[in-house]
Amino acid sequence: MRFIVGTGAAGQGVYLVEGTQAWSLTALDSKVGPDLRAIIDGHVDVNALAERKTSVPAEPVAGLTPGLPIALPGKIICLGLNYVDHIKEGGYDIPDYPALFIRTNSSMIPAGAPMVRPTCSEQLDYEAELMVIIGKGGKHISEADALSHVFGYTLFNDGSVREYQRKTHQWTPGKNFDATGPVGPVIVTPDELPEGANGLKIESRVGQEILQSATTSDMLWSVARTIATVSEFTTLEPGDYLAMGTPPGVGHAKKPPRWLRPGETVEVEIEGIGICANPIIAEEDMSATEAAE
Questions:
Q1: CB atoms within 10 A of CB 170
Q2: Which parts of the sequence belong to the Fumarylacetoacetase-like C-terminal domain (predicted)?
Q3: What is the CA radius of gyration of the chain?
Q4: Residues 6+ apart with CB under 8 A from 34
Q5: What is the Cα–Cα distance from 21 to 8, expressed in whole angstroms?
Q6: Other CB atoms closer than 10 Å to residue 126's CB: what's the count?
Q7: Hey, which residues does 161 pair with through a beta bridge?
Q8: Beta bridge partners of 241
Q9: What is the per-residue pLDDT across 19-74, written as a single tens digit (0 to 9) for each?
Q10: Is the pTM of this model over 0.70?
Q11: Antiparallel, parallel or unpaired: β 108-110 and 181-183
Q12: Long-range contacts of range 37-40, CB-CB < 8 Å, 24 or more positions apart?
């Protein structure tokens, strides 16, 4: 199945997507709620609802305003170095253990929302990533069983303010500026993709300029291996986000560096999932607009 959480003619909720059409599952059953939480937790029978989709009007997918798949995930865990060529372009040694960091909820935005370049730095970079949404929690999950814990896959742009990422050995500041982490809009269940979302083309671009282009088969830590590794130290919970790292081609490694600029729209695309597109806006322009309103 394919879902979009967002707002359409039927209001805010979860929409079942087939091709260019969408149906509000929330309109079919109010227990579905405003995001994927109730479906992930098994509070509604999504298969039964899907069979009744024509009981509500179809809407064009293009008319939906995306929201976050899970409005307030318990954890957002990200891999920093998961593609060999990206590791090399950053000047790092190939690690024996994944570089892991956590993002805050305030750094996350839905597809389509403005991605904000902060006033304190022009070094806003892009990172196309596969995002995993955990469906079944657990700790000490085996790699062999790990994929059964996945609810679905979506897109992520791990927007990074490089100047602040390098102010400390910990990456927290550069990875957590407000409104720099777009996610969504389409969430695809595992049965629609290759096992572990392996072998999918992944790209980022601005207009016709291709910034990154690779395949998810290049990941050092597969989805299954990552879930097993992360669950060694923390209990994964339904609705957690797990970002799988970015391929080579990021802006800071280009000569000269290629930062995202206000007025541009950056796109992340993964084969079989879709496109996450977000305009870039300067924080000072956003503040001026809010003040005028």
A1: 10
A2: 75-280
A3: 19
A4: 5, 12, 13, 14, 26, 67, 71
A5: 12
A6: 30
A7: 124
A8: 76, 133
A9: 999 999 999 999 999 999 999 999 999 999 999 999 999 999 999 999 999 999 99
A10: yes
A11: parallel
A12: 37/70, 37/71, 37/238, 37/239, 39/3, 39/14, 40/70, 40/133, 40/135, 40/151, 40/238, 40/239
Residue 28 CA to residue 169 CA, distance in Å, equals 49
**For residues 213 and 200, is the Cβ–Cβ distance under 8 A?**
no
Token pair, residue 192, equals 């629609």
Instruction: Give how far the C-alpha of residue 284 lies from the chain's centroid of Cα atoms, to the nearest Å.
Output: 26
Question: How many other CB atoms are found less than 10 A from the CB of residue 94?
Answer: 9
Separation between Cα atoms, residue 99 and residue 86, nearest integer Å: 13
Cα gap 159→157, rounded to integer Å: 6
76-292 CATH: 3.90.850.10
Place of tokens 């087939």: 18
pLDDT, tens only, 187-215: 999 999 999 999 999 999 999 999 999 99
Q: Count other C-beta atoms under 10 Å from residue 246's C-beta.
A: 29
Domains of the chain, residue spans: 2-66, 76-292
Q: What is the 3-state secondary structure (H, E, C) of the chain?
A: CEEEEEEECCEEEEEEEECCEEEEHHHHCHHHCCCCHHHHCCCCCHHHHHHCHHHCCCEEHHHCEECCCCCCCCCEEEECCCEHHHHHHCCCCCCCCCCEEECCHHHEEECCCCEEECCCCCCEECCEEEEEEECCCECCCCCCCHHHHEEEEEEEECCEEHHHHCCCCCCCCCCCCCCCEEECCEEECHHHCCHHHCCCEEEEEECCEEEEEEEHHHECCCHHHHHHHHCCCCCECCCCEEECCCCCCCHHHCCCCCCCCCCCEEEEEECCCEEEEEEEEEHHHHHHHHHHC
